[in-house]
Amino acid sequence: MTEIWRVRTHRSEEELPREQQLASAIAQVAVDPVPVDADVADMIVNRVIDNAAVAAASLTRRPVVAARSQALAHPASTGGAGATVFGEAPTVRVSPEWAAWANGVAVRELDFHDTFLAAEYSHPADNIPPILAVAQHTGRGGADLVRAIATGYEIQIDLVRAISLHRHKIDHVAHLGPSAAAGIGTLLHLDPETVFQAVGQALHTTTATRQSRKGEISSWKAHAPAFAGKMAIEAVDRAMRGETSPVPIYEGEDGVIAWLLGGPDARYEVPLPSRGEAKRAILDSYTKEHSAEYQAQAWIDLARRLGTEHPELRDPANIASIVLHTSHHTHFVIGSGAGDPQKYDPTASRETLDHSVPYIFTVALQDGRWHQVDSYAPERAGRPDTVELWRKVSTTEDAEWTRRYHSEDPSEKAFGGRVEIELTDGTRIVDEIAVADAHPLGARPFARADYVQKFRALAEPALEPTEIERFLELAERLPELTPAEVAELTITARPGLYDGVVLPTGLF
Description:
- With 508 residues, the chain is an alpha+beta fold.
- Helix content is 43%, strand content 8%.
- It has a four-stranded mixed beta sheet with strand order 6-5-7-8. Strands 1-4 form a two-stranded antiparallel ribbon.
- A hairpin with a 3-residue loop joins strand 2 and strand 3.
- The chain is globular, with a radius of gyration of 22 Å.
C-alpha cells in the first residue's frame, strides 16, 4: 500500500531522524528491488520511442545543435565506455553527463513528449536521457534500464502529485533532479545512503526560478531539464565518492520548503510506494499528439473540430469574441491571465507562442491541423487575419475546470475547458472538451501503433529508412536488451542532414 510521507520544516534543534526525511524515503524506493510490471515495461518502451521521435525532429534546431556541439567537445570519461549522442553514430561516445545534456535538449526542444500534471507539472520522460546515458557508460542491460526508468517516473510523478513549485515561482525541474538521481541509483544498484546523498545534491543544484517560462521565453526552456539531468549524474558521481549533501535538504530550517516553497509552516503529503509495491506511476502520465504545452493539447483538438464544422469561424470578420473558460493553471500560465503581452505578439519566439493558448487556438481553428514547425513559423504567426482573430481570444478561470484539473479521480481529471464564441451576427457557439484526443480517456488514446507512427513521421526527414527500422526493432525489445544492444539505443542522422548547419563556438 502507498505510504504518505508528511513533510514539514524542522528547526535545527529539533531531532529529525534520517529515516524520517523525504530524501531518505525516496532513496528507499530507489533501492527496492521490486519487479517491473509488464504493462509498465510496455509503456516505458513507448516513451523511449516517443523521446527518440521528438529528438529526431529537432536535430537541426539551433539549441540542439549547440548542446550537441558542447557534448562532442567532452570525450568519454575514464570511468566507463561513454554514452551516445542523438544524431551521431553509435561509435561516437562522450562523457555521460554531456550525453544527457545534449539528448535532454533534443528531447525537450519541441515541447512534444510526455506530461504529468497535478499540484505541479512535469515531463517525466526527461528522466530517460540521463538514465540511459549512465546505462550506456556503465554497460547495463535492458532489464536494469527499465527498472531505473520506472523509478525515475515514480519519484517525479509522486513529487508532482504533492508539491507545487510554480506557486512559489520555482521551475518544475526541481522535481526532476531528485527523480533522475534516484533512477540512476536504481540502475547502478547503489546503497540507500549513496542515493540519499545524491538526491539531496541533485535537488540543491536544480532549484531555479520560473522566469525561464515567463514573458519572453528563451531557448533555456529546452535546456533546463537537460541541466537537471546533467546535475543528477554529477550528484551521483560525487555521492559515490563519499561526498555528502545539505541535510535535511527538504525539511531543514534553511532548506527548500522553508525558503523556496511554502515556508516554515507549510505541510506536504507525498505518496510513495511502500516496500515491495510496484512502481506504476508512468501509467498515470500521457504523451502529446501535438507540439505544444500540454494544457493546449485539448484546445487544439477542439479548435480543429470547430473550424471544420464551422468554417465561418476562421474569418475574424465574423467573430466578436472567443473566451476559453478553463483551469487556473491554463489561464495564468499559457492564457491571458499571465498578463504577458508577448502572448499576443506575432514576432514572439517559438517558445513564447508555445505557451500562448490564444495563439494556439487561433491557428488550429484556422488551419484545421497543428504542425511542430509550420504552426510556429514567423510568416504563420504574422498573417494579418490570424493576428486579428488571435487578439479576440481570451481566457478566464472557471472554478469547476480548476477543480477537475486537480481532481484525484482519473475519470474526471481534465485539462480542457469550455469555449464560448460570440459571432458578430449575434449568434453564439458553445462547446467543451475535457481531455485531448490522445489522452488515455480521449477520443483516440495513444497506443503502441501511435507511438511508432509518431516516430516514423517525425524521423523520416532526419533518418535513413534502415535507421528508423533498426531503432524501432531495438526499442521494442528494450527489457531484454544486452548491454551491447543498450549501447546502440540511439539514432544516427542521415547523410547530408547537417549540411549548411553552422556549429557555434564557445569555450570548449
